[in-house]
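Researcher: Structure for this, please.
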Amino acid sequence: SRSLLRRQRKRCLRDRPFQQWWKDYDLGRATREEVVAAISADNGCSQQYASECLDRLIGMFDPFPETCRLIRKLHEGGNGIYALSNMPRDFWARLQQYDIFSCFDGAGISSEEGLSKPDPAFFDVLAERYDLEPCRTLFVDDKTSNTYVARALGYYVCTFVPDAERCGKIIDILSAQI
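Model: Predicted structure, token format:
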């Protein structure tokens, strides 16, 4: 039981292509029921079990304390903070329950926009909506495929893992370059 959940979580965290059904879920083109059926078929388990695993996966998406401290510090310093995320609607609904999102000035979520990273058009949606200039914006992401595209579009970039050292690096980058 735990092995299916671990495989799905690892798949979410790795920088590699997802199955088409998950991409469609991220883009808001697949329903939860369709994703549950796909998980069930791919893993040879019941749909009930697949649904429970999906619920547990959603429940694992909690804010990291170091990242929350960084976001609050940046927010208090007057920096604009925006989310650009590949995320199904139900994952986004869960995350918005956390008070840290009150520090954000805006968001582009793949399931709401019908676009996902690393598509340059998705970056453009956020930049145009919030009048962001790439040459004055730091793009932070955990996947190099996304930071590669952002750099090509003119953003400052930081490939990020949520730990104190990387949080400090972001402060250094903002202080020195932007």
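Researcher: Any notable elements?
Model: The radius of gyration is 17 Å. The CA atoms of residues 48 and 83 lie 32 Å apart.
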